[in-house]
UniProtKB/TrEMBL annotation:
<keyword id="KW-0675">Receptor</keyword>
<keyword id="KW-1003">Cell membrane</keyword>
<keyword id="KW-0297">G-protein coupled receptor</keyword>
<feature type="transmembrane region" description="Helical">
    <location>
        <begin position="82"/>
        <end position="102"/>
    </location>
</feature>
<dbReference type="GO" id="GO:0004930">
    <property type="term" value="F:G protein-coupled receptor activity"/>
</dbReference>
<comment type="similarity">
    <text>Belongs to the G-protein coupled receptor 1 family.</text>
</comment>
<dbReference type="GO" id="GO:0005886">
    <property type="term" value="C:plasma membrane"/>
</dbReference>
<dbReference type="InterPro" id="IPR000276">
    <property type="entry name" value="GPCR_Rhodpsn"/>
</dbReference>
<feature type="domain" description="G-protein coupled receptors family 1 profile">
    <location>
        <begin position="61"/>
        <end position="311"/>
    </location>
</feature>
<keyword id="KW-0812">Transmembrane</keyword>
<dbReference type="Pfam" id="PF00001">
    <property type="entry name" value="7tm_1"/>
</dbReference>
<protein>
    <submittedName>
        <fullName>G protein-coupled receptor 182</fullName>
    </submittedName>
</protein>
<keyword id="KW-0472">Membrane</keyword>
<feature type="transmembrane region" description="Helical">
    <location>
        <begin position="251"/>
        <end position="276"/>
    </location>
</feature>
<keyword id="KW-0807">Transducer</keyword>
<feature type="transmembrane region" description="Helical">
    <location>
        <begin position="45"/>
        <end position="70"/>
    </location>
</feature>
<dbReference type="InterPro" id="IPR047143">
    <property type="entry name" value="GPER1-like"/>
</dbReference>
């Protein structure tokens, strides 16, 4: 949920603007140069529905992933720490969605105070970067483990992965700080939570924040993901591994999902930030970008729904562990009558599935369904 606002417009139009109050007046009265019939009410309803759908599905999926992987042994998967921490990060993003849902419903009015204004955005950014970085770590470690390229890593891989996960969380906690310190609660007409860098250097700060988000959130992680996933898929195919073809399809899905979720967001963010001071967009294009930015931002959060499917639910190993977890937590029938009822049901079922003319053996308590 980026709060880096647009640049403040051509310098010739801003020569007599000296503070934020005059700037807000400029945006409200002089900036529009063309008129487009775009319904803000429809946009708010669509955003609320999207946020709600992502919240419900993402909450269930990531909680399942966390529970199953948390109670699994270390032998359940060497790369499990990355999968588990990625699910925790995605769950953090999902838990921040109710705030954005209410903010959209209230027409971007912020009613939760100055501390929550900064903390909610910080919480979102930390989990966003963590989720992306764990995807990169997963891609790199999978290839390193497959090729045995670093024997030292193989000997200390469990401690190494825990150290990497801790390092990712620390790095993700530090990256948003320069932007978050400039997020403030602005009481103009209605209280709003905005990126408010020093007025004289606002455009520079906004550009730095947008560029850092794009570089650290897309331009660096994406090539690393592509290279190491493709190398892993090629290695599996060359080795004649039966899962080679399946992994190639998964690699294509990993890359496609990452591009679909994040590329539109970063392109739109950069264009909005550069508009006015560094580039000049056509009036209608600028209106479309400003109007659809929140929808594109919301759409980027779909990775919280898709990641559990790609990295967990499609795995036969995870499916087996999930089934074992479900069976383990099913209520146990303790009383004798319950066991006899189950045995009777099992006997009837056995009679149905036996071949005609063959008498099934007497059913005992061990024939429970």
């Amino acid at each position: 949920m980026s709060t880096t606002g647009p640049s403040v417009g051509p310098a010739s139009d801003l020569g007599e603007i000296h503070n934020w109050t005059e700037l807000l007046h400029f945006f409200n009265h002089t900036l529009p140069e063309c008129h487009m019939e775009l319904s803000e009410d429809t946009k708010r309803v669509a955003l609320f529905v999207l946020y709600l759908a992502i919240f419900v599905v993402g909450l269930v999926e990531n909680l399942l992933v966390i529970c199953v992987n948390w109670h699994s042994s270390d032998r359940a998967g060497l790369l499990r720490p990355y999968v588990l921490n990625m699910a925790i990060a995605d769950l953090g993003i999902v838990l921040s969605l109710p705030v954005w849902m209410l903010e959209v419903t209230l027409d971007y009015t912020w009613l939760w105070g100055s501390f929550s204004c900064r903390f909610t955005h910080y919480f979102y950014f930390v989990n966003m970067y963590s989720s992306i970085f764990f995807l990169v770590c997963l891609s790199i470690d999978r290839y390193v483990t497959l090729t045995n390229a670093f024997p030292t890593w193989q000997r200390h891989q469990h401690r190494g992965r825990r150290a990497v996960c801790m390092g990712v969380w620390v790095l993700a906690a530090l990256i948003p700080l320069p932007e978050v310190v400039h997020i403030q609660l602005v009481d103009s007409f209605e209280p709003m939570c905005l990126f408010m860098a020093p007025f004289e250097t606002y455009s520079t700060w906004a550009l730095v924040a947008a560029l850092s988000t794009t570089v650290l959130g897309f331009l660096l992680p994406f090539p690393l993901m592509v290279v190491f996933n493709v190398l892993t898929a090629c290695r599996l195919r060359q080795a004649g591994q039966p899962e080679g073809r399946r992994h190639c399809r998964l690699v294509c899905a990993y890359i496609t999902v990452f591009v679909i979720c994040w590329l539109p967001y970063h392109v739109t963010l950069l264009l909005i930030t550069l508009h006015g001071t560094h580039i000049s967009l056509h009036c209608y294009l600028a209106h479309l970008l400003y109007f659809f930015y929140d929808i594109i931002d919301c759409f980027s959060m779909l990775h919280c729904v898709v990641n559990p499917i790609l990295y967990n639910f499609l795995s036969p190993s995870f499916q087996g562990r999930l089934l074992n977890a479900v069976v383990h937590y099913l209520p146990k029938v303790q009383d004798r009558e319950g066991r006899h009822a189950s045995s009777s049901s099992s006997t009837q079922h056995s009679i149905v599935i036996t071949k005609e003319g063959i008498q099934p053996p007497a059913a005992g308590p061990h024939h429970r369904v």
